[in-house]
Amino acid sequence: MSNVGGDTLPLSAAQRGIWFGCQLDPGGRRYRIAEYFDIRGPVDPVVFDAAWRQVVGETEALRVRFIEEADGPRQYVGPVETAAVELVDVSRRPDPEGAALERMRADLDRRLELTRDPLHTVLLFRLAQDRYFWYFQFHHVILDGYSGAMVVRRVAEVYSALVTGAPAVQPDPRPLRDLLDEDLAYRVSDAFLLDQEYWGSRLADRAEPATLADRVSAEADGLVRSSAQLGTDEQRRLSESTGRALPTVMLTAVAAYLHRLTGARDLVLGLPVTARAGSATAGTAGMVSNLLPLRLTVTGEQTCAELARHVLSRTREALRHQRYRYEDIRRDQRLALEDEPLVGPVVNVVPFSYDHGFGGHPMTSHNLAGGLAEDLSITVYDRGEGQGLRIDFDANASLYRGRICTPISAASCGCWRRWRTTRPRRSAGSSCWTPPSAGAFCTSGTTRTVRIRRPRGPRCSRLRPPGPPTRSGRSSRTPL
């Protein structure tokens, strides 16, 4: 049963976490996700608008509006907007691509009020007769990354069908109400209590998470991004080094690198998940994704293969309990304040591929904003189509400055490139993980020694009243 024009609906647990987090981010930048798609071929703006309208009509989450009532925030599903998708013609500008990106960044920088402003933006840029950019930005409170990818694929599918005259497969998504009911049913179920018990046991006597940051800050102050690219051959050899799938390889690599630089043996990495395993509403767009604290034990004596097996085992174990909210875990661990970290670097492997193109033309995606990073977020985009891997290092600007973040990304990728030739039996703590110049990172002709923050021992339980949720995980599918 759809809720269009009906009573207001509650927020899901994931949405509540973001809602309260937004109270600390009045501008709304932290929780926005944006990509643009480079379409190498002509696009019919009228047909594009028709395809977008059809998908918005099929996707209730894209029409959600929020209100504040006496008992807290609520949401309802509004009608399809009547305004057409804006076509921005930059083809006569001296630098069409730069002009398009400038407009996109201006949209990302605008202040956003959840109860008043549009929660997504779609723009179509004409750079030339045979080249277009499609820009899609949305707030994390309405969609997770998994849902955003569903929307993109559906628009491409509908547009392609309209321009060719072929019938598009008609989806049958469950209404948003069903997604919310499923979330509520879980939170009063025995499964919820079992998951709570699991995370309490798994995180008992944990150490403060290891980090590459100079210090711990009370609040994120924007993001610093540095990106790198690994070719298809490097990607293949990296997987061959452990014999595991890409998510396990990247988690293993980050764990070994962090252990090598900090000396910490007890690591807690952040693992974003869809939290939709076995869900009857897997085809319904919304905000469901979660962030799991992946606790690992890393020693210098482990081989690469042994560490990969340990990572795989712990990951599979954690995924069986992925619906228990990150915000609930923080409260259970008595982490009342935002500056009390639960996880170190977050490792997110995004396997969403748009390999069907757009109207028969190639389409390449480019991420502009991936949402919140409390410490360091490492996002690996595996777009298929022989594109290799793009790796974005998004760092909390109050912890990592640009001249630090860029060398960290360069050093990490340099180590991963060397590791691709490492034998599986070689120690994960071997010298192939030593950063350049024994820890001195060089950039722009200067040398800066980064102070590595080593974790303290097991933390005492501090009986501090829990505060509101402050963090929500980003989405990805994480096949092992």
List keywords for this structure.
Chloramphenicol Acetyltransferase, 11 helices, disordered C terminus, five-stranded mixed beta sheet, alpha+beta, 480 residues, four-stranded mixed beta sheet, 2 domains
Give me the secondary-structure topology.
Layout: H1 13-22, E1 32-39, H2 45-58, E2 64-69, E3 72-77, E4 86-89, H3 96-109, E5 120-128, E6 131-139, H4 145-164, H5 176-187, H6 190-202, E7 223-230, H7 232-240, H8 246-262, E8 266-273, E9 290-297, H9 304-319, H10 326-332, E10 346-350, E11 363-370, E12 376-382, E13 389-396, H11 402-419, E14 440-443, E15 446-449
Parallel strand pairs: 4-5, 10-12
Antiparallel strand pairs: 1-6, 1-11, 2-3, 5-6, 7-13, 8-9, 12-13, 14-15
Main sheet, how many strands, which sense, barrel?
Answer: 5 strands, mixed
Structural class: alpha+beta
What percentage of amino acids are in beta strands?
15-25%
- Secondary-structure arrangement, i.e. CATH architecture of the largest domain: 2-Layer Sandwich
Low-pLDDT runs of 5+ residues are: 435-479
Globally, the shape reads globular
> How many domain modules?
2
CATH class annotation of the largest domain: Alpha Beta
Number of distinct helices: 11
The fold-level CATH name of the largest domain is Chloramphenicol Acetyltransferase
Query: Average pLDDT across residues?
Result: 81
- Please give the share of residues in helix: 25-40%
The overall strand count is: 15
What's the order of the H and E elements?
Answer: HEHEEEHEEHHHEHHEEHHEEEEHEE
Q: If strands are numbered along the chain, what order do they take across the biggest sheet?
A: 4-5-6-1-11
CATH superfamily of the largest domain: Nonribosomal peptide synthetase, condensation domain
End-to-end distance, in Å? 35 Å
The rounded Rg comes to 22 Å
